[in-house]
UniProtKB/TrEMBL annotation:
It comes from Taenia asiatica. The lineage of its organism: Eukaryota, Metazoa, Spiralia, Lophotrochozoa, Platyhelminthes. One of its GO terms (molecular function) is potassium ion binding. The keyword ATP-binding applies. Its EC number is 2.7.1.40. PANTHER family: PYRUVATE KINASE. Pathway: Carbohydrate degradation; glycolysis; pyruvate from D-glyceraldehyde 3-phosphate: step 5/5. The keyword Lyase does not apply. Residues 351-483, 909-1022 form the Pyruvate kinase C-terminal domain. This is Pyruvate kinase. Belongs to the pyruvate kinase family. InterPro entries: Pyr_Knase, Pyrv/PenolPyrv_kinase-like_dom, Pyrv_kinase-like_dom_sf, Pyrv_Knase-like_insert_dom_sf, Pyrv_Knase_brl, Pyrv_Knase_C, Pyrv_Knase_C_sf, Pyrv_Knase_insert_dom_sf. Its cofactor is K(+).
């Protein structure tokens, strides 16, 4: 496990006997000694109390029982059922807390598998609990059972807790994870019981602990975000926001933060993680977590070493994707706001070392530290290289393992100077003899650490390194940085020099003579002023609190209790399923949140396709096109899937490496698959099996199991398991792609395209090799993560997804994400924490839509899946930092020369900026082709964009863009463009009121054109909505326009004279005339706050900044 990447070993003393704990601790310490303490392993004790777990079902570990709502279930303590659980009788193990069952009362709720199944207690017996299933689902073996904490006897819990703390101190634990984080007094009492060398981490797993976060950060040494515990108090869509909120506050406060709970849960029984899990881990690293805590994955999972290897690889990839400069700038800014910038010499030296390391591209920063404070301060500044903490205290070295990017080195050489110092001597003067001894000791420590890092591959010859030291050996004396270039192997550095050299030049260790460079120039001046006057704040900054200026500050300001009542902007695409292919079923899915219905032509008969499309068009017509529904057709070949195992749909077979497996086409095995014979369904591609050759690889369940073809027969393929794992029913079979796209496949593809055109479908997914060619040639992209997983390792998928999404956002093309978004909800009513986080981070990355496949095509909880995605999207959209997003998009488009300065684009850009400035609720855009509306939506304004069009196909296409809502105007044209504008805008406003997009008192932006032709968008106006049913006058009637024509000459004359007048008085007179004319015209309307009309004859337009909007 250490070789795989483990840094800290966690022991739960309530799950392991005391003797085993002592043996494990002894083994760890012996292992450290065998490495000469060059590889340190910290030991953490989880004193949260033993979890109560269920037994094993009689069908085996991989079996999942279906608990149906309303059924009776008995939880028993009888060990006869420990390995023989059934749907009606489930064993629970309370050996570490035998009296726990007696604290339950009738009406209490019991949560199984972290809330996947909810039971309601009916009565409690001597050794059993009779319950009724309140919320059903699938339940596996050895799942956690959560009881109501307020029912537990606090005295018993406390006594067990104190015993565990005493035992942790006896074993010499380096860290203790406590679940009594809701009580500050318990944290303080924990500190009194434990020795000072044992660090206390508070587990955030309740609402109380989240509310007391700042107080907990102040009294503990670290934070552990326990997502499984939080899931008992918060809905799934809240977890990601809470995690980011906690991590942000810990980063600003310079304390380590770990995350645990369903990080790689699928690897309990499978050798590879899901895409959601890989993305979740990567995004946790990008958010700033210091550590990831694996629990059940390594405690009793089948692949503990593989799990650690996978997490290690994902972390490496994620760390390479971090923009360190932005991270540091945001950290410094947030600490400045809170007054947490420390101007001590030690901290200023550390900050200078970080800046120097980035400036010279150093490979490592070597820090000599006594207490670890100097090294920790540097590591929490998030340098772009590793930090080596050189210490003689093994407790300090192990504590450094909790910090990201901080690698401890325990110096055990001879003549450890700081250990020989007498305490009384430290208060006397430091003589030259003592100084020279310390200087030689510095050389020895640094060179020993360099040799160690050379050996481990952290640095090599030719690398630049930063060395941070102190003038004396006492704590807090760090004041010097050195920059070196490493030479050949075994070469020694002279950091300070010998005693003879020092005697020639005198002592350079006076702190007044030490030169340091702080990254903030203004801070240095303030520091000198403070030293001169002896008092006063280091610097005073007045900042506006109205809008965060950094992403980290925005994260720290997230309101985790805020109700996400906003209208969802992200598009949800649902694959057609048998359970909702009726008109009523489609309506229910639309009510749940579906925007686009996806039909896989290879899996759906043509007559059903036509019938479903007919239902969709009828629904649109009945709603007078106020609820447009997009229809997409998937042109990819039908996926080949396995059959159902004899144990049922929830049964999972274990395919062992080296065993023989036959893939058969025989329908007799369709519902009778075994680990030796597996049926594959090639109904929609009967000749597919003939494309296989000996030596080809066949992947089951998106690569979870790998087979090698040995020979191919008429109706079967004989294979050998190359990489084993657990395989369930109806899993995808992936075959070599280069053999698939032959003439027969192309012919089917062309037929599908013709059928899609016949049905009037607006979305046709297809594939192209080059990303940039695809962006240029297509109208949008779909990221199919399962296919990418066949060509890339799991740790690469998150980076590919972010890369593709970013390029699409810059190019103003919509991008959707598909595969394994809510795979667990195929059979369970709630998503995993990794899935919730994956969806939320996809929204935060900028994805326009999310495509559900198996979840809605044949999953048990199709409606629930859509509702969950809807809730998560709305929560994530409230957490988007729009100010930063718009700025980054603008900057990237300018760098790639993709900015457009035509009148339509500039008008749209001004509308987006105005909406952000005045907190508008919606932007209403009259559009013919949809280009004006999509251009505004891709600028990512902080509000909804309403595209008002006469073409229903344009309204449907708008569904593909995030934040863009299509409205089809079905009223009659009056023949007067000005009147038509008023009618269309007011109709759209009434629709927006009815759907909750806007309400009275909201500000709105209206974007229109001077004429009714396409491409004429040139006007932006701002209004405040009044009471219901009030009408806005956007332009006015033709008569009013004719009456205003008399003033047009004066307006043009005044506009031209503004550029010719040189004196301020004449300019002010012209402006007064302009304002008078505009006020007269505005009096005939509903008094818009301001309007901007761009003339087509304006040349050399500089962009958005040329528009002066008086806010």
């Amino acid at each position: 496990m250490v070789d795989a990447g483990m840094n800290i070993l966690v022991i739960n003393p309530n799950m392991v006997t005391r003797d085993v704990c002592k043996d494990v601790v002894k083994c760890i310490r012996e292992l450290e000694e065998s490495y000469d303490r060059e590889r340190l392993i910290a030991i953490a004790f989880d004193v949260a109390g033993a979890p109560v777990r269920t037994g094993t079902f009689k069908e085996g570990m991989s079996y999942e029982a279906k608990l149906v709502e309303g059924n009776r279930v008995t939880l028993t303590l009888d060990e006869e059922y420990k390995f023989g659980c059934t749907e009606e009788l489930i064993f629970i193990d309370t050996q570490f807390f035998p009296k726990l069952i007696h604290y339950l009362r009738k009406g209490d709720r019991i949560y199984l598998d972290e809330g996947q199944v909810t039971l309601l207690v009916r009565d409690v017996g001597f050794d059993c609990i009779n319950c009724i299933v309140e919320e059903g689902g699938l339940l596996g073996s050895f799942k956690c059972l959560t009881l109501s904490r307020n029912r537990l006897n606090q005295e018993i819990l406390r006594s067990t807790y104190v015993k565990d703390l005493d035992f942790a101190a006896e074993c010499g634990a380096d860290f203790v994870f406590t679940n009594f984080a809701g009580s500050i007094s318990m944290i303080e009492e924990t500190r009194r019981i434990l020795p000072k060398t044992t660090k206390v981490f508070a587990k955030i797993e309740t609402q109380e602990s989240v509310k007391n976060l700042r107080e907990l950060i102040a009294v503990c040494d670290g934070i552990l975000v326990c997502r499984s515990g939080l899931a008992m108090y918060y809905t799934p869509e809240k977890i990601f926001k809470i995690q980011k909120y906690i991590v942000g506050h810990c980063n600003v406060a310079d304390i380590p933060v770990f995350v645990t709970g369903q990080l790689a849960e699928s690897m309990i029984s499978k050798p590879r993680p899901t895409r959601a899990e890989a993305s979740d881990i990567a995004n946790a690293v990008l958010d700033g977590v210091d550590g990831l805590l694996l629990t059940i994955e390594t405690s009793w999972g089948m692949y503990p070493f593989d799990t650690v290897n996978v997490v290690d690889n994902i972390c490496r990839e994620a760390e390479r994707a971090i923009c360190h400069e932005i991270s540091r700038a945001e950290l410094n800014y947030c600490r400045l706001l809170r007054g947490q910038v420390n101007d001590s010499i030690k901290n200023v030296t550390g900050a200078s070392a970080v800046e120097a390391a980035d400036s010279c591209s150093a490979s490592a920063i070597f820090v000599i530290t006594t207490t670890g404070a100097s090294a920790i301060s540097i590591a929490m500044s998030r340098p772009s290289c590793i930090v080596i903490a050189i210490t003689v205290d093994i407790a300090v070295a192990r504590y450094c393992l909790a910090y990201r990017g901080l690698h401890p080195y325990l110096y055990v050489g001879e003549g450890v100077f700081c250990c020989l110092l007498d305490i009384a001597w430290r208060h006397r003067h430091v003589g030259c003899e003592r100084v020279t001894e310390w200087c030689e000791d510095v050389d020895n420590r640094i060179n020993a650490a360099i040799e160690h890092t050379r050996h481990t591959g952290l640095v090599k010859g030719g690398d630049r390194i930063i060395v941070v030291t102190g003038s004396v050996s006492t704590s807090g004396s760090t004041n010097t940085i050195h920059i070196f270039t490493l030479e050949g192997e075994h070469s020694k550095l002279r950091i300070v020099g010998s005693s003879h050299e020092l005697s020639q030049v005198g002592s350079p260790w006076s702190m007044e003579n030490t030169a340091v460079a702080f990254p903030f120039p203004s801070a240095v001046g303030a520091s000198r002023t403070r030293q001169a006057h002896g008092a006063g704040p280091r610097y005073s900054v007045m900042l506006s609190r109205a809008r965060p200026l950094s992403h980290l500050q925005h994260t720290c300001n997230l309101d985790v209790d805020q109700v996400a009542d906003n209208v969802r902007q992200t598009t949800i695409v649902c694959t057609l399923g048998k359970s909702w292919k009726t008109k009523e079923g489609i309506l229910k899915m639309m009510d749940a949140g579906m925007n686009i219905m996806l039909i896989n032509l290879s899996m759906t008969p043509r007559d059903i396709c036509k019938e479903v499309i007919k239902y969709a068009r009828e629904i649109e017509k009945e709603s007078n096109y106020s609820r447009p529904l997009g229809i997409a057709m998937d042109m990819t070949a039908a996926p080949v899937r396995t059959g159902i195992f004899e144990g049922g749909p929830s049964y999972e077979a274990n395919l062992k490496e080296g065993s023989r497996v036959t893939l058969t086409l025989d329908d007799n095995y369709k519902f009778k698959c075994t680990p030796e014979i597996i049926f594959i369904n090639t109904k929609y591609f009967p000749q597919l099996i003939q494309c296989l050759r000996k030596g080809d690889r066949v992947y089951l369940d998106d690569g979870q199991v790998s087979l090698i073809v040995k020979d191919v027969e008429l109706d079967c393929v004989n294979c050998m398991v190359e990489e084993g794992g657990i395989i369930g029913s109806y899993k995808r079979v992936t075959l070599p792609r280069d053999r698939l796209y032959q003439e027969s496949v192309q012919l089917n593809y062309i037929k599908d395209l013709k059928f899609a055109a016949e049905c009037g479908v607006g979305f046709d997914p297809f594939t192209i090799c080059s990303l940039h060619d695809l962006i240029a040639a297509s109208d949008g992209l779909v990221i199919r993560r399962s296919d990418l997983a066949m060509q890339y390792t799991p740790e690469k998928i998150f980076k590919l997804q972010k890369y593709i999404v970013a390029h699409c956002n810059i190019a103003e093309k919509p991008v959707f994400i598909i595969e394994q978004l809510l795979e667990s909800m195929v059979s369970k009513p709630r998503p995993t924490r990794a899935e919730s986080s994956d969806i939320a981070n996809a929204v935060l990355d900028g994805a326009d839509g999310l495509v559900l496949t198996m979840e809605t095509s044949w999953g048990m909880y199709a409606l629930d899946s859509v509702r969950v995605v809807d809730n998560i999207c709305r929560e994530a959209e409230r957490a988007v930092f729009h100010f930063e997003t718009r700025g980054e998009l603008k900057q990237c488009r300018m760098q790639m020369e993709q900015n457009s300065f035509d009148i339509r684009s500039v008008t749209g850009a001004s509308a987006a900026e105005a909406a952000a400035s005045c907190n508008a609720t919606a932007i209403f855009v009259i559009t013919t082709t949809g280009l004006s509306a999509t251009s505004i939506a891709m600028l990512r304004p902080p509000c909804s964009v309403i595209a008002i069009t006469l073409d229903v196909s344009v309204a449907r296409h708008c569904l593909a863009y995030r934040g863009l809502h299509g409205f089809v105007f079905t009223g009659k044209s009056e023949g007067d463009w000005a009147v038509d504008i008023d009618n269309r805008i007011n109709a759209a406003i009434e629709h927006a009121r009815s759907t909750g997009l806007v309400k009275g008192g909201d500000r709105i932006i209206v974007v229109t054109g001077s004429v009714a032709t396409s491409g004429s968008t040139n006007t932006m106006q701002i209004f405040t909505l009044e009471e219901e049913h009030s009408k806005l006058r956007i332009v006015g009637s033709a008569n009013e326009v004719a009456a205003a024509t008399a003033h047009k000459g004066l307006l043009n004359l005044a506009d031209s004279s503004m550029g010719q007048q040189q004196h301020q008085q004449k300019d002010e007179e012209v402006i007064d005339e302009l304002e008078e004319i505009r006020l007269i015209q505005g009096a005939r309307s509903r008094r818009p706050r301001f309007s901007v009309m761009l003339s087509s004859n304006k040349r050399g337009f500089g962009g958005i900044n040329d528009i002066r909007v008086p806010l």
